[in-house]
């Protein structure tokens, strides 16, 4: 396959699927960083890699853009084997965001964002327009920040510039290695929220590495839990992972407060009963059918009620009781030693 395979495969589209087929990495000193991992990230999905320190998360990520070569297995982007492509060319079509951003200190923010477009030979006007468009997209006023240098920005702002730079050439895939961990928890929360909005509009295929289970649950469409030696313990949606951890080890990893976390990622329909099983529904607090169990709990607590009425287009379609909130398929029941 020629060097422009990724670009051509992506013509007219903005995201590509990623397939890991039995990939593994043994470093020359014998360290097994990644055992044998197979998983698929659909185009436009955000997959999170999570697990304890040293379990091979960064190695997996860096194998996707060929900063590290796998010892075995294949990685396909939209069905094309990355091993058959020129690594430098490949990386121009894969955005990469790392923890401390790695902005060039002596270049303006605009110039930093234009790095890959310049390598791709875009003309100056187009690069400038693209940089300004991306600054807007990540919530930074181009007139105010475009001409500044990285040290003239806060940590959170630099992180946003890192995301803008990774998106500059409209990559099909975005790899993010602990992108929000260098900032304090309040800024992190805000960045995560902005990032979700951004992803809703650009819909890239993203693989994101984190240590933080809350971040994983908040951002991921799917979460891959890795264990020491780069073993894949479970690959599931946040709701599935929290309600049905595959093993006791996963259950322990996702934490004892997973019941509360699960509420935020589970729709009210999961716990809804038909209307008519309780009286006087007109006195009860309400929640929209598009809401989560967490919204239902909040409505109950605010309304000092044990039940909540679920509305669809303003019409009651069911009720949820406080006890039903926690009646998910029992994690313990499915967990094995
Ligand atoms: N060049 C190398 N040579 C030998 N071993 C390495 C090399 N790079 C990484 N490792 C080892 O491979 C394993 C996986 O490392 P990796 O950086 O992928 O883990 P990680 O899950 O991203 O860790 P962290 O969360 O701490 O960043 C670790 O045991 C690490 O020490």
Task: Describe the protein's architecture and organization.
There is one protein chain. The protein is an alpha/beta fold. It is built from 16 helices and 13 strands. The longest helix has 18 residues. The protein starts with a helix and ends with a helix. The structure holds adenosine-5'-triphosphate.
Residue ranges: pLDDT <50 for 5 or more in a row?
A: 1-11, 328-337
Question: Structural class, from helix and strand content?
Answer: alpha/beta
Report on the biggest sheet.
6 strands, mixed
Give a count of the beta strands, DSSP E runs of length 2 or more: 13
Q: Tell me, what's the shape?
A: globular
Tell me, rounded to a whole number, the average pLDDT.
84
Q: What proportion strand? A: 15-25%
Q: What distance separates the N and C termini?
A: 46 Å
Q: Provide the helix percentage.
A: 25-40%
| H/E element order | HEEEHEEHEHHHHHEHEHEEHHHEHEEHH
For the largest sheet, list the strands in their spatial order.
6-7-8-3-9-10
Our count of helices gives 16
EC number: 7.6.2.9
Pfam families: ABC_tran
Family: Belongs to the ABC transporter superfamily.
Enzyme class: translocase
């Amino acid at each position: 396959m020629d060097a422009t395979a990724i670009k051509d495969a992506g013509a007219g589209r903005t995201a590509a699927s990623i397939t890991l087929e039995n990939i593994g990495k043994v470093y020359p000193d014998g360290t097994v960083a990644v055992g044998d991992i197979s998983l698929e990230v659909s185009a436009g999905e955000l997959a999170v890699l999570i697990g304890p320190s040293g379990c091979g998360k960064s190695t997996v990520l860096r194998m996707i853009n060929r900063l590290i070569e796998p010892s075995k297995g294949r990685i396909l982007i939209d069905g094309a084997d990355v091993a058959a492509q020129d690594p430098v060319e490949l990386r121009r079509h894969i955005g990469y965001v790392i923890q401390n951003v790695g902005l060039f200190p002596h270049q303006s923010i605009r110039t930093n964002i234009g790095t890959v477009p310049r390598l791709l030979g875009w003309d100056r006007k187009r690069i400038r327009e693209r940089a300004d468009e991306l600054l807007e997209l990540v919530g930074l006023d181009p007139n105010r920040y475009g001409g500044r240098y990285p040290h003239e920005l806060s940590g959170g702002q630099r992180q946003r510039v890192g995301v803008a730079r990774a998106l500059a050439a409209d990559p099909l895939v975005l790899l993010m290695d602990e992108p929000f961990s260098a900032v304090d928890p309040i800024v992190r929360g805000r960045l995560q929220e902005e990032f979700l909005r951004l992803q809703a509009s650009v819909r890239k295929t993203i693989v994101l590495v984190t240590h933080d289970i809350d971040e994983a649950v908040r951002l991921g469409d799917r979460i891959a839990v890795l264990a020491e030696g780069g073993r894949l313990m479970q690959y599931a949606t946040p709701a599935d992972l929290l309600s049905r951890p595959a093993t006791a080890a996963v259950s322990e990893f996702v934490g004892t407060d997973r019941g509360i976390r699960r509420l935020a990622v589970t729709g009210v329909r999961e716990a809804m009963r038909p209307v008519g099983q309780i009286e006087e529904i007109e006195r009860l607090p309400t929640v929209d059918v598009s809401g989560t169990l967490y919204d239902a709990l909040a409505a109950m607590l605010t309304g000092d009620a044990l039940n909540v009425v679920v509305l669809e287009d303003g019409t009651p379609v069911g009720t949820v009781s406080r006890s039903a909130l926690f009646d998910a398929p029992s994690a313990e029941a499915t967990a094995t030693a």
